[in-house]
Amino acid sequence: MMAEKGGHKHFMHKEIWEQPRAVADTLRGRMLLSEGDVHFEGWNLSAEKVRSLTKITILACGTSWHSGVAGKHMIESLARLPVEVELASEFRYRDPIVDGTHLAIAISQSGETADTLAAFKEAKARGATAMAICNVIGSAMTREADFSVLTNAGPEIGVASTKAFTTQLVALFLLAVKLGRMRGTLSVPAAQEHLTQLTKVPKMIEDVLKCEPAVTRVSREYMDSQDFLFLGRGPMHPVALEGALKLKEISYIHAEGYAGGEMKHGPIALIDEKMPVVVIAPKQPHVAYEKIIGNIEEVRARGGKVIAIIDEDDEHVATLADQVIRIPAACALLAPVVATIPLQLLAYHVADLRGNDVDQPRNLAKSVTVE
Ligand code: G6P
């Protein structure tokens, strides 16, 4: 059994550590650096079709929904196309506005989640072009799709999704560059610059994994907490949501992920000296960084404990936080890939220290094929 896990104690730990390889596999053969373009095997959306799109609707559940929220930032920023990120389980039970000028993108590790599949069929029936971003070739969603982007993460066994999430993020970034080029919102040099940033990501993930001893120390300190708050702004908001979800899934600690600006509308009432607040505060983008420092000060003023995820060279936030975890600096749209890794490790170590069954958390299933 240990051999199957490649010497790791749990599949989840193995899968966290596989991420440099998994992300490299998602990128392989797809980045055309000299042309400033992206190649997807079998791409069948004409330039005319892409230019006529008026909206993208992302349909997903759980962790895949979080990657959709990050994807919205990427696509809106690079391709200037409005993106709505829908909870698949809600979308199918209302009367959604969809027409032939829309692109529906189902994001799913398994390609079999019942709610996502049903929502995807609904969007298709209403005339949308259907694209799947999926980890399993031949799954129901890839069969339903007009076109699929495979994430190539390899089999994911741990119920809590890790490498599927980061590979979805880079697949979405590739898609955003491709759509940006086709719609003329990204010049060749701009696309080349984005792709150059992307080539650095596998090495950055390798580097960020070195934070594991620091994360383990933080995990020991807070393993008995009853609640956690995760805060992030802009593209870090979905990272906060994902950090909170990971923790509750496997450690069974109550955790909430919030956009930093919303803290004053509720969660601030919960903050006391027993409340650890994980603040995702890379310097990119600049405005969000300035604002998140404001959040840190608000938490500290109420006695809360701040665990800050910061850029390697950030000495300022280091003086404000109780603990820091340093990560390599990435551009704003790719920082979520890097910033998620310490949060996966935090959830993993807290759950392991509490003696939980990390790979098979209670009440959860890897793939939910019922409504
Ligand atoms: C379940 C899993 C989650 C996953 C979600 C969506 O709840 O436990 O880890 O994010 O389903 O799964 P999908 O396969 O559609 O990405």
TrEMBL record:
Entry annotation: catalytic residues: K366 (for fru-6p isomerization activity)
Subcellular location: Cytoplasm
Entry superkingdom: Bacteria
Record's keyword terms, sorted: Aminotransferase, Cytoplasm, Glutamine amidotransferase, Repeat, Transferase
Main location per the UniProt record: cytoplasm
Enzyme class: transferase
EC number: 2.6.1.16
GO cellular component: cytosol
Example of a GO MF term: carbohydrate derivative binding
Domain annotation SIS: ranges: 46-185, 218-361
Function: Catalyzes the first step in hexosamine metabolism, converting fructose-6P into glucosamine-6P using glutamine as a nitrogen source.
Binding partners and assembly: Homodimer.
Protein name (Swiss-Prot/TrEMBL): Glutamine--fructose-6-phosphate aminotransferase [isomerizing]
Source organism of this protein record: Myxococcus xanthus (strain DK1622)
Included stretch of the parent chain: 241 to 611 of 611
